[in-house]
């Protein structure tokens, strides 16, 4: 069901933060998809949904995003809960943005929060291999497993514009 962002975003964040790990896809210079697993942190402020993911700005995804600044995320849980976000993505190269992202991840509650310093090459927010990717969803989809098993619930879909 088409639903407003005010209904879809909180349902998306609840499911995404409960599942934690997402399959993420970018497109390379030749238009071929690349997928990997990432760990985004989402923030719903009542008006806007944004996300961040800590990842290396030296990775292949950085080259992909330089050409095609879009990334999609799909979460799946064994109870058949699934949700997806299609996003515009932009690196935050500023020292302030990197430090804020580091602290946001470190201070977020478990299971989605973690100390980025556990990654061997990330000593602190100034480490060359540490980057903050800022996410702005333009489409969300939330499918509780209870819908597929006939136990009720709502499929929620939102798209910008």
What secondary-structure arrangement, pairings included, does this model have?
Layout: H1 5-19, E1 22-27, E2 33-38, E3 41-44, E4 49-55, H2 60-67, E5 70-76, E6 82-91, H3 95-107, E7 131-143, H4 145-148, E8 156-159
Antiparallel strand pairs: 1-2, 1-5, 3-4, 4-7, 5-6, 6-7, 7-8
Question: How would you describe this structure to a colleague?
Answer:
By secondary structure, the protein is an alpha+beta fold. Helices cover 25% and strands 35% of the residues. It contains 4 helices and 8 strands. Strands 1, 2, 3, 4, 5, 6, 7 and 8 form an 8-stranded antiparallel β-sheet that branches. A hairpin with a 4-residue loop joins strand 3 (41-44) and strand 4. The mean pLDDT is 96.
> Which H/E pattern describes the elements?
HEEEEHEEHEHE
Instruction: Outline the biggest β-sheet.
Output: 8 strands, antiparallel
In DSSP terms (H or I, runs of 4 or more residues), the helix count works out at: 4
Number of strands: 8
Q: Beta-strand percentage?
A: 35-45%
**Distance between termini?**
16 Å
- Structural class label: alpha+beta
Low-pLDDT segments, ≥5 res: none
- Percentage of residues in helical conformation: 10-25%
User: Residue-averaged pLDDT, rounded?
Assistant: 96
> Which geometry do the CA atoms define?
globular
Radius of gyration: 16 Å
């Amino acid at each position: 069901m088409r639903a407003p962002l005010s209904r879809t975003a909180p349902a998306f964040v609840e499911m995404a933060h409960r599942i934690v790990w997402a399959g993420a896809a970018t497109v390379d210079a030749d238009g071929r998809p690349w997928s990997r697993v990432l760990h985004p942190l989402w923030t719903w402020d009542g008006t806007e949904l944004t996300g961040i993911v800590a990842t290396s700005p030296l990775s292949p995804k950085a080259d992909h995003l330089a050409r095609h600044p879009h990334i999609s995320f799909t979460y799946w849980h064994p109870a058949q809960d699934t949700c997806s976000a299609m996003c515009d993505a932009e690196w935050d190269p500023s020292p302030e943005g990197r430090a804020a992202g580091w602290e946001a991840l470190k201070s977020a509650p478990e299971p989605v929060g973690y100390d980025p310093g556990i990654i061997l090459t990330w000593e602190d927010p100034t480490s060359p291999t540490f980057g903050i990717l800022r996410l702005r969803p333009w489409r969300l989809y939330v499918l509780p497993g209870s819908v597929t098993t006939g136990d009720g619930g709502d499929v929620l879909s939102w798209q910008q514009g």
